[in-house]
Amino acid sequence: MPRMLVLGGMAAGMSAASKVRRLDPRWETTVLDAGPDRSYGACGLPYVVGGITPDLGDLFALDPEEIARRGIEVRLRQRAVSLEEGRKRVVVEDLPSGRRSEEPYDALLISTGSRAVLPDLRGLEGENLFCMHDLGDGRRLQAFLADTRPRTALVWGSGYIGVEMAENLAARGVSVTLINRSERVLKTLVEPLKARVVEELESRGVRVLLGVQVLEALRTGGRILGLRTDRGELYADLILAATGVRPATDFLEGSPVPRDGRGAILVDETCATGVHAVWAAGDCCAVRHLLTGRPAYLPLGTTANKMGRVAGANIAGRRERFPGVVGTAVTRAFGLEVGLTGLSPAEAASAGFDPVEAVVEAGSRAGYYPGGGAVTVHLTADRRTGRLLGGQVAGPEGTKGRVDTLAAAVTAGMKAEDFALLDLAYAPPFAPVWDPLLVAAGLLVSRLKG
Amino acid sequence: MPRMLVLGGMAAGMSAASKVRRLDPRWETTVLDAGPDRSYGACGLPYVVGGITPDLGDLFALDPEEIARRGIEVRLRQRAVSLEEGRKRVVVEDLPSGRRSEEPYDALLISTGSRAVLPDLRGLEGENLFCMHDLGDGRRLQAFLADTRPRTALVWGSGYIGVEMAENLAARGVSVTLINRSERVLKTLVEPLKARVVEELESRGVRVLLGVQVLEALRTGGRILGLRTDRGELYADLILAATGVRPATDFLEGSPVPRDGRGAILVDETCATGVHAVWAAGDCCAVRHLLTGRPAYLPLGTTANKMGRVAGANIAGRRERFPGVVGTAVTRAFGLEVGLTGLSPAEAASAGFDPVEAVVEAGSRAGYYPGGGAVTVHLTADRRTGRLLGGQVAGPEGTKGRVDTLAAAVTAGMKAEDFALLDLAYAPPFAPVWDPLLVAAGLLVSRLKG
Q1: Is the dihedral of CA B304, B305, B310, B312 positive or negative?
Q2: Is B271 a catalytic residue?
Q3: pLDDT tens, residue order, chain B (450 aa)
Q4: What is d(CA B193, CA B388) in angstroms, rounded to the nearest whole number?
Q5: Which among B325, B370, B408 has CB closest to A408?
Q6: CB of A121 within 8 Å of any CB in chain B?
Q7: Across-strand partners of B371?
């Protein structure tokens, strides 16, 4: 009976294990996870904090009974220490006891995910400092909120988690200041859309400070009082650091498993690492960006699920492929839905394209249909080929759908001029007769010609 | 100074006239319309009836001042009688006076739209019989509702207008029975989605009777009392006939402008009719279906706008093309958003494809994120090529976006297996980690392999 060993029991790992068992039940599948919890939807953590999702337990993806029914053995608090690929073994530490043992495999899937990275700042630790990366972070923050009822929070980092936490802490009645070292909001968001996000945050009472250099953590006892910055001292009852993640692959140091400079595992379209019998999937991996053709680090739950499934299929002997991503993402900042796909103009330029861009604002519904509001659409195309390279959308509704439409077009290599005449769905409650996407594409086409 | 004559001043006509004037202001543009109203959004009529849009006047697309500013002359109540293409003239009747005159042109755009078709049934006329096709219909129905406060309505026809009118008459407190000759709802909707629409209508108190043969109009004085059908006599204070439309092209009888059997004008990609200096656009035209390659009659406001713009560009000497449509549509039946694009399995089969289909139900949001509900997705692909041919979506939210995503993929000729791994936007408020579209595509791929 062949044995599949899975390191990391979140989205990618459980998808792969489930797929292998479904395709070929002869496989013995053992999932080891360093954490104390079985698979859950980490993307929901901010919404539990905000009280939208009632309980952290709601985030669990699979019941223990369902895991057992699939014939998957899950062992928690098991940390991978090193890979001995020649002997097809992983050295594993049982965290409660500290004991080490060797786990043999016929196929190994590395799906150890990512870990939160704190800024490199002395004194940045304390009972009121939080990340929002795993269920343990959620538990600790929920207890802190209930016990100490903080009135003020500093959210450090204006990426997706930072913006979502700003909203959800505000929903708990906490007065939030959002700070970020760079001027960026939601990573590659272009200026007009960034302005809308900042405006929305500020209109809901979140103070937004961008381009802030943090100089020192101000401390007292076991707590952080605040941060001294180049914009003055910022005090808060609670510090939430949402300053990025890194692939959790340190245990591969010295192994032949290929990784990029950040530590993200490099895999081919079948999720194979090139090391015999070793696959990898999920947030510990780089993924191929379909527009640049290069590996990119874009850790996301959807991608992890897809990679896990494809890795599982290949481990079970099927030939399936995961071609890559176009960098699609969406989130909500209070009443504003914002998302993007493909390349921003800056990313396009650095990938060797000649970017042409267009931005428009148009209604989310027919003018005479009440509700909705202005949708801002920014599109990027390549001047030489006319190909649509990316798009960003911000508006009160329909953003995911518009971003997905762009994602399909960008993935298919559609030209801007073909996109501009696309047969999109129209009805007064859902769009104007010229959808904002088509208005933007029309302007883009005239820019491409001009 | 060259003269552009436009027959029909709705979406296509006004788009074309505006485009010509924008590209080349030397053109004198005269728009003649048989109706009493300048351009308006006819798709909004049901929502004015329902009271969502406050006033019929809200539907007007352009102010007279804006029309004048664009340098377009609009003359109302002018009916085209015949085309004398050899002399480049149109015989026009001034409806108020009955006087006829000849209007010369250097370029002619036919954009006369469509007209409502009533079932061929004796006695089907009366003060309580309505269509919902133009602003006049809306005015007459609004007055009738205000004056007589009808308690019951028969909506005849279960296409888009019929379903929208059922909802909006119900919103006015009218008890609605929806009947249709065939068993179909929303034209090509497949069974599981049709069932959801019927269920939604019935749950909101609309009685739905499909496959009903109407035998006779029951009359008294100037009113219709009801309809005698093979399912019994159906009485109502108000009869709304939403039984289809036909191209308004009778005046072309005997002219060389090519039309299909239904009277829809056949145009090429530049909206030219093949008759010298004669273009056509909008609901009076057939359009090329991009999947079948054949002309289809799919009159829609979005298409009319696009064709009008392309026709205008070509009239002004630019070479632009309107490639065609994939049959995308969306509407709302009370709380259910339903839409479709591409070919249904039956349409695919009759177009020579070998259709494979899959249908799934999945959540519209992450399972732990409250709200939303079940989304039903039905997809069709071609067994030989694996190409995605069409999709239908019904759910409480996000339907337009999902249909548009499918429309982009179908238009691009994407294969089902590529669609199944598409990088769609994910965040808990907007989708589960596997979007319903991806779940459906995954099942479709396994069917294609099986």
Answers
A1: positive
A2: no
A3: 899 999 999 999 999 999 999 999 999 999 999 999 999 999 999 999 999 999 999 999 999 999 999 999 999 999 999 999 999 999 999 999 999 999 999 999 999 999 999 999 989 999 999 999 999 999 999 999 999 999 999 999 999 999 999 999 999 999 999 999 999 999 899 999 999 999 999 999 999 999 999 999 999 988 999 999 999 999 999 999 999 999 999 999 999 999 999 999 999 999 999 999 999 999 999 999 999 999 999 999 999 999 999 999 999 999 999 999 999 999 999 999 999 999 999 999 999 999 999 999 999 999 999 999 999 999 999 999 999 999 999 999 999 999 999 999 999 999 999 999 999 999 999 999 999 999 999 999 999 998
A4: 19
A5: B408
A6: no
A7: none
Model ipTM over 0.85: yes
Question: In a mutagenesis test of the A interface, which of B165, B168, B423, B445 is the best target, namely the one with the most A β-carbons within 10 Å?
Answer: B423
The shortest CB-CB distance from A41 to any of B300, B301, B368 is to B368
Contact status of A426 with chain B (Cβ, < 8 Å): yes
- Asked if A13 has any chain B CB less than 8 Å from its own CB, the reply is no
pTM tops 0.90? yes
Inter-residue contact A312 to A23 (CB < 8 Å) = yes
A contact residues 169-198, partner B, Cβ 8 Å cutoff: none
Q: Which residues of chain B lie closer than 8 angstroms to A428, CB-CB?
A: 41, 43-44, 47, 53
Using left for φ > 0, alpha for ψ between -120 and 50, and beta otherwise, residue A250 falls in: alpha
How close is the nearest chain B Cα to the Cα of A289, in Å? Answer: 10
Structure tokens at B42: 């006819």
Give residue for tokens 């006047």.
Answer: B57
Query: Which of A163, A423, A437, A438 should be substituted to probe chain B, the one whose Cβ sees the most B Cβ atoms within 10 Å?
Result: A423
Q: Does A301 contact B431 at a Cβ distance shorter than 8 Å?
A: no
> Do β-strands B336-342 and B388-395 pair in parallel, antiparallel, or remain unpaired?
antiparallel
| A11 close contact with B: CB closer than 8 A | yes
Residues 358-377 of A with CB under 8 A from B: 366-370
Structural element, H or E, at residue B135: helix B135-148
Q: Do B325 and A423 touch (CB under 8 A)?
A: yes
Whether B318 has its CB under 8 Å from any CB of chain A: the answer is no
A·B CB contacts under 8 A: 223
Residue B42 has what DSSP assignment?
Answer: G
